[in-house]
Description:
The complex is a heterodimer of chains A (137) and B (684). Chain A is mostly helical and 137 residues long. Chain A has one domain (5-131). Helix content of chain A is 71%, strand content 0%. Chain A contains 4 helices and no strands. Chain A has helices spanning 5-30, 35-57, 67-88, 100-125. In chain A, helix 1 crosses helix 4 (100-125). In chain B, helix 5 crosses helix 19 (641-657), helix 7 packs antiparallel against helix 8 (283-295) and helix 12 (398-407) packs parallel to helix 13 (418-434). In chain B, the strands form 9 sheets. In chain B, strands 15, 16, 17, 18, 19, 20, 21 and 36 form an 8-stranded mixed β-sheet that branches. In chain B, strands 1, 2, 3, 10, 11, 13 and 14 form a 7-stranded antiparallel β-sheet that branches. Among the domains of chain B are: 7-174, Tumour Suppressor Smad4, CATH 2.60.200.20; 254-305, no CATH class; 375-470 and 506-567, 3-Layer(bba) Sandwich (FAD/NAD(P)-binding domain), CATH 3.50.50. Chain A binds chain B through residues 1-5, 57-64, 66-69, 119-120, 123-128, 130-133, and chain B through 257, 263-266, 293-299, 453, 456-462, 470-471, 475-477, 479-485, 646, 649, 653, 666, 668, 671-672, 675.
Amino acid sequence: MTPTLLGRLQTRLLLFLTVGVVLTFPFAIAIDGPFFSILFWIMILGFFWDCLYTFIQKFRWDRDWPAAYQVIAGIWEAFFLLSIIVSFGLYGSDFGDFSVFWFTVHYSTVWLGIFIASQVLMRLLFPRWRFRGGRWF
Amino acid sequence: MPTPPQTIQLSWTDPTTQEPREPLLTLPVTFGRFLDQMPAIIQGQPVSRMVLLHPRVSRYHALIEWVNGRPVLTDQNTSNGTFVNGARQQRCELAVGDRIQLGEVIIQVQQIPNAQSSPSSTSSAPTSYSAETIYPGVSPASAPPPLNEPRPTPQALSARSTPQPSFPPATFWESQVVSIQALTQSGYFTPGQDEVSYAALGAGLGSYIWIDYLRIGGVKPYQIIALGTQDKPYAKYKQLCLNSQIPLHERLRSNSDSCPDNIWGWPSYAIRESWRAFQKGDVPTSIGLMWQVFAEPTFAETYTPRADNVFDSIDREARRIGWPDIYRYGSIRCVRKTDDGRYAIAYSKGSGEYGYVVAKYVHLATGYPGIRFLKHLQDYRDRHQDAKSVVNAYERHDHVYEHLIQHGGKVVVQGRGIVASRILQRLDEVRRTSRQNVEVIHLMRSPKRFNEGNRYGQAQRLVKNNWEFQPFNWPKACWGGDLRDVLENASPEERKKLLKDWGGTTTADRKDWQELVTRGLEQKWYRLLFGCVQSVCSKICNLQVGYGEVGAAGIQQFTQEANFIVDATGLSAAVTENPLLKDLIERYQLPLIDKKSLQVSNEFEMTALTSADTLSRQAPGRMYAAGVTTLGGPYAAVDSFLGLQYSALRSVQHLAEINAEGLKPLSVTRSFSQWLRWVNNQTP
């Protein structure tokens, strides 16, 4: 799938609110930590990243976004968010007992879940999605 | 009043192009291997000279002429002989249904419109038309109108009193709208049996993919007919692959998730191939394939599927959706609107039998209208009637490689696209396996430096060693990314410019091909020259190729001797070269793009062909098109697997919106449940 800006934003919103929320529940219940806040901030920051990625795509002749770029982007987004949290904290969250280990586990789980859903589930549920650059409505 | 022409309609498959041919010819007719070996005029009458390029056909093989009101075939004392219905004949009268065999070419007598009745004639077409209404419109779809006005012979005059109509009759050809009542009375149309909601014309990949969407949308097989001349939907595509040197084990230039057997594109061909390797215990290959689709195109070569895997998958899906019940053999002659808001399709069933199909929704996917040759090569072929030395990469040309394996030789290859890459690969294989001296001269029009690739926005296409690279035939975002949106929303003028910016000749960035060129240059069996061929002449067994190179000092002239020229520059031709489309365009004044392509809406509908119901004011019939005939319209990649799926998705969605019979919208639940049925290989 070759994403467009609108497609990226819509897909991100849909998958974070579904797959992201479902995968965050076990963490929020079993482990003490601001997992839903983190999920919320990944999504919000992601909207800005999507604008940047779309800009970068315009320099590629095929205007595509290979799966490998998706992984690199995911690692970068995690690193950026982690730096912000460690340095400044995030608005509306109590990061008193923040654990880098659980952040990494939670982030990886959510990212992998969303990656697989975007590669598989979106195609099966929305047969027009891949022709619309990721727009699902 | 015009004199009735002495005509005969024959059908055969061209031995060179494998195209089915069904022209209506004015007698006398000759068959042979060389045009200039056959008489141009016999008894003052211009001859319809038909060239059959097959080694077992003689230079001038057979003549069909009009004798006493009947067509008579005469063998021209050939070594291989002429056979009619299996028996060798020196001279014999022909009747409808006869099978003539010249070498390995089989010619069927389809109809003899003005013949005197003969006991051997098998044609029993019901007739209710007068001769006057028949003659003027005789089969404009399959042959140019007769050039000559034959002398009014007694035979011709008597033929007029016992007319046998050509099919469809002139009243059909000349109408904009035909009446269902007249069709029923014609005897060629059985209501119910020949009536469907959906008709797909072509029965190739475009038809099959459209029908796949219809079936997944809930339409039943008995509501659909696919009309065409080959029962496998990929038959023509496969032949073009084989001709252009993509054997079954080679990889096509197609994306992993462009799956003509699966509308969701999952599991993709890479995943399936990887899984099969894993099941065989070949874990490194399995992981390698997954890495390739993951990292392509930046960190790994782009994955492309093997031809045989694609064809096998289409076979499975065709069986699943009931293709054998949907497909009907037929050579389509003509399509007209009907007075009840549908379309009537007149077709030949072969062996002199005909029929009509009436459908409410029609899909036109007839494929490439023809093979295009570079002008100087076409000139040479016409002048020398030599289609052995100068060949198009898309026509069957195995004799080139067979000759090289036996004798070695020199080949000029023209073109810098993916087909040129394939031809070079094959020539290299021949050279290495036969150990013959095979020389390749690769002729490109002009050099292309690293900074001369096409530009669009901030991006530029990669150029290496004078080749321009791109994984597929359009930038990837044309299929579903932002370029698709840009093109769809552009004006006709803007579209033209965009397609020029994104199009052009490219090949795939494959290491083995680049290594081949480097090796060839080092070993001096491959030479890259720049210039245009200006003349081709025939020497005793060689071609003399003159070409001009544009340099600082103007055009310099060079000549090269070669055994063969392979034209790998393209396949495109205007839609008007297809007789069926030409007739539709002329009859309904269809708008064209650049005189080359059919104009379609964003839903791929040919809106000028909407068929209004004048009888009971029901919803009108609709006609859609797909494939290369729509190039220049709302979508760039129309002639690709994924592009055909896109156009089918759009037109079937449009049909669902207008509540077409038996079709349900492809909702989230339908999509997912239908995918599960695909996985389990259950009928949709």
